[in-house]
Design brief:
By secondary structure, the protein is α/β, with parallel strands linked by helices. It is built from six helices and six strands; from the N terminus they run ααββββααβαβα. It has a domain of 63 residues. It has a two-stranded parallel sheet with strand order 1-2.
Length: 293
């Protein structure tokens, strides 16, 4: 349960709360013995803060586990940002909460309700989102790298322009997500439900795909003419040359490459000068399927 003293200070308004937090922190830095040692551990767990105006509140290192923040306003103000960095928000109710642009780096949100919450342009790196309800959430431009979203429900969420590289989406549901211009390299997708992913923006003709990887590839293909030319060059003009090219054979390869270039081909050479492991063999398989011959 929340510390009643902490809750009473917060209810006096953000300005009073921030002043109290700064004074308490300064005393702690100077080594002043606080009358209440609990003042260094901010406990708002289970507090009812639904609809509260917490805009600009200093909420770093706060225990908000199980708190009700439904519809709360948590926006930044000047250089005093609403900062939940490493805060405990597990099982908190943040449905329809307004949190754009805040820093949630490393926060605990496992089991929380973030349905229809506004998290646009937030830092969500390394956040624990296990089992979180993110249905219909706004996650435009968010940094979700290394976040744990396993078993999370993101149905209908907007992930446009977000970074989810190296995030864990195992067992998550992405049905109906908008995934325009996402970055999803090395994302864990074991048993992830991927269907009806919307690649286009709301005012564009609707394009849907069924995998994040395909969404990323098609976006790059449609928006990068250089990539289209490159793919055309690989599939119609590339020549793959694989072998062990000792010093006396390199001249032959160089001459061969020169002849190919003169005939408008693009040579790709691989000198197998080390034992071929499984990764190398997989690379050969991938590259061999692309070129003309």
């Amino acid at each position: 349960m929340a510390n009643q003293q902490h809750l009473n200070v917060l209810r006096q308004g953000v300005a009073t709360w921030n002043r109290w937090r700064e004074e308490t922190f300064e005393q702690w830095q100077r080594g002043v013995q606080l009358e209440d040692p609990a003042e260094t551990l901010i406990d708002l767990s289970g507090a009812d803060l639904s609809g509260a105006n917490l805009r600009g509140a200093l909420l770093y290192d706060v225990d908000l586990s199980g708190a009700n923040l439904h519809g709360a306003d948590l926006r930044q103000v000047n250089c005093h940002s609403t900062n939940f960095c490493e805060a405990d928000l597990s099982a908190a109710n943040l449905s329809q909460a307004y949190l754009p642009g805040i820093n949630l780096f490393g926060a605990k949100l496992n089991g929380a309700n973030l349905s229809e919450a506004d998290l646009n342009w937030t830092i969500l790196k390394k956040v624990d989102f296990r089992g979180v309800d993110l249905t219909g959430a706004k996650l435009i431009g968010t940094d979700l790298r290394y976040a744990d979203l396993s078993q999370a429900n993101l149905s209908g969420a907007d992930l446009s322009f977000s970074y989810i590289s190296r995030a864990n989406l195992s067992g998550a549901c992405l049905t109906g997500c908008r995934v325009h211009a996402i970055s999803c390299y090395d994302t864990q997708l074991e048993k992830t439900i991927q269907s009806d992913l919307i690649l286009s923006l709301p005012w564009e003709v609707t394009i849907t795909v069924d995998t994040l990887g395909l969404a990323q590839f098609i976006f790059l293909l449609l928006n990068n003419p250089g990539l289209r030319d490159m793919i055309d060059g690989i599939t119609s003009k590339a020549v793959l040359i694989i072998g062990y090219f000792a010093a006396e054979r390199k001249m032959v390869v160089e001459v061969l490459c020169g002849v190919l270039r003169n005939r408008n081909y693009v040579p790709i050479t691989i000198n197998v000068d080390k034992p071929a492991d499984q990764d190398t063999m997989n690379m050969f398989s991938i590259l061999a399927a692309l070129p003309n011959f």
